[in-house]
What does this fold into?
Amino acid sequence: MSSFKKGLRKVEVALKWDPSPIGAPSHDLDIIAATYTSDAPGGPPSYVVHFDSRSPDGTITLNRDSTTGQGFGFDEVMTLELERLSPSYARVLVGIAIQQGERATVFGA
It folds into this structure.
């Protein structure tokens, strides 16, 4: 992963949102990370890390997952240990899925 070596060794992505008003359907935000190999950086992801999963080598983990936004501190937290990621990966894409009621919208970062 030499292309990521710009001083970033460990990255933490954290989300916090206000819960839905009482009686309204809850909304949920989810952090998602996808890894791409250097031989196919624009192809399908090698693996995807999302709620209730982690990377096979343990370099990307979802440490906290809230479905309502209720509680103290951050509601979603994902840690990416870029220094430990195999050199065969050329890109990691982190995105946010917003699920509100019956609809789901996805935004990428």
